[in-house]
Amino acid sequence: MASPSTVKTLSPSDPHAITEALNPKTTKYEFAGPLGALAVSVLTPGLLYVFHLTCSELAGGCPPPLLSLPSTLQSTRWLNALWDTNAFFVYLGWYAYCVLCWKLIPGDWVQGTTLRTGEKKLYKINGFSTGLLTLGLVAGTIYRNGPLAFLYIYDHWLALVSASVVFAIFQACAVYALSFRKGALLALGGNTGNVLYDWFIGRELNPSFSWLDNINFDLKTFNEVRPGLILWMLNDISCMCEQMVRRGRHAWPTDSMILINLFHGLYVLESLWYEKNILTQMDITTDGFGFMLAIGDLAWVPFSYALQARYLAFTPRELGWTLSTIVCILNFVGYYVFRTANSDKDAFRNGKNPKNFKTLKTKRGTELMISGLWGMSRHPNYWGDLMMGLAWCMTTGFNTPITYFYIAYFTVLLVHRAMRDDEMCRKKYGDDWTEYKKIVKWRIIPYIY
Ligand code: NDP
């Protein structure tokens, strides 16, 4: 922990020497290059609308009868739902509220990893307090005025999706343009010279804005934990309110709705509690900030991850004790694996080894754990995350495949992420990585993958 005045941070106004040597040209594409970038840029927001076309009352079911699709697409209700200027300003208000909380709520200032310039940035950690304050305000509103008072999100879902997509496009364009200013530190993977690709993957490593002296508002970490993650919880709560209103004045939500809110809420709050751990993740240390992260953080996470709760709002379903117990066991065992693996790695990377894990020494100077969960697979935390994801999908029962999209998508995301990490570790560790892979054979799930 450090105080803002004691550590020198990078600021866009610093005319320090970020030379061309620090920002080499990127020679290798990821995501299948510009065409892949185009495909993901269109598909990601596109899918958010497809979820509504294939799973909503507006569309006529989940999935709706195939023949109803053309008439849904032509219906004015659908078109009107796509855009609402008031909803756009509500969304901007939400983002501004998150910025204000970042600025006003006290928090620790924590150093990030060492940048290529040799310096370290400072990050304000108060995401958990922001999350608690927001939940408190929402709970107070619902307690005082009933669930009817918190239906805005559910009622304006598509318009809010559009607002977040437009804002993500705006942010990606703005940071791309600003990355050409003198002194900007670029991401090693985002400087190909291809406009579309660099805009998508992120040209500048850490776009940030100096608000006070040397205190930086870092857009990438801010977006990663606050406006999207907390909104995801609010989206779920709004769906729960919708279900309660439908079920009658004094009705409780269904067990499935309570569980999905509990599981998602726990996941979000614990991400906020461990906010500083993201500072060592590849999104922050390696990836630039472009459309990929902007759309992911602002639109994809809050609106696609809440699909199960939205489905349960208009298709209430009681799981019963047996299925509820199975789903809870899956979620909490997954959580145990996820949390233990992440905490073991964080402690180990901070120079502690309280569980006396066996280690492999590397020429790079750092060690790799080869026993405990990290001796069973190379990404045990992904394996726990996947178990939780499956439990979330199962809260919706087995009547539709659409609410299982999350686990299919998340599997692809984590397999791809494991491949990217493997490539980076091969470069970092050389032969030692090959040796490590001989000892820890499984990539994510022991004996399966
Ligand atoms: P990891 O936490 O697996 O970190 C990978 C890094 O850990 C490697 O680059 C290496 O870096 C270090 N490492 C690898 N093996 C070992 C070892 N045996 N011993 C010690 N260090 C090791 O990956 P992520 O950062 O991708 O994921 C973090 C968490 O975020 C996970 O729980 C994941 O599930 C979650 N996540 C969630 C997403 C969501 O949308 N919900 C999206 C993406 C991730 P080095 O050696 O340089 O320290």
Could you characterize what this model shows?
Pathway: Steroid biosynthesis; zymosterol biosynthesis; zymosterol from lanosterol: step 2/6. The chain crosses the membrane at residues 31-51, 88-105, 125-144, 156-178, 250-269, 289-307, 319-338. By secondary structure, this protein is mainly alpha-helical. The chain has 2 domains: 30-318, no CATH class; 319-449, no CATH class. 58% of the residues lie in helices and 6% in strands. It contains 19 helices and 6 strands. It has helices spanning 33-54, 68-74, 76-82, 85-104, 127-145, 152-155, 157-178, 195-201, 219-225, 229-247, 255-273, 282-285, 291-304, 307-314, 320-349, 373-376, 380-394, 405-429, 431-439, and strands at 108-114, 120-125, 208-212, 215-218, 359-361, 367-369. Helix 10 (229-247) runs antiparallel to helix 11 (255-273) and helix 18 (405-429) packs across helix 19 (431-439). The longest helix has 30 residues, at 320-349. The structure holds NADPH dihydro-nicotinamide-adenine-dinucleotide phosphate.
Feature tags:
19 helices; 449 residues; Delta(14)-sterol reductase ERG24; 58% helix; 2 domains; mainly alpha; binds NADPH dihydro-nicotinamide-adenine-dinucleotide phosphate; globular; two-stranded antiparallel ribbon
Helix-strand blueprint:
Layout: H1 33-54, H2 68-74, H3 76-82, H4 85-104, E1 108-114, E2 120-125, H5 127-145, H6 152-155, H7 157-178, H8 195-201, E3 208-212, E4 215-218, H9 219-225, H10 229-247, H11 255-273, H12 282-285, H13 291-304, H14 307-314, H15 320-349, E5 359-361, E6 367-369, H16 373-376, H17 380-394, H18 405-429, H19 431-439
Antiparallel strand pairs: 1-2, 3-4, 5-6
Bound molecules: NADPH dihydro-nicotinamide-adenine-dinucleotide phosphate (NDP).
Catalytic activity: 4,4-dimethyl-5alpha-cholesta-8,24-dien-3beta-ol + NADP(+) = 4,4-dimethyl-5alpha-cholesta-8,14,24-trien-3beta-ol + NADPH + H(+)
Pathway: Steroid biosynthesis; zymosterol biosynthesis; zymosterol from lanosterol: step 2/6
GO cellular component, one term: endoplasmic reticulum membrane
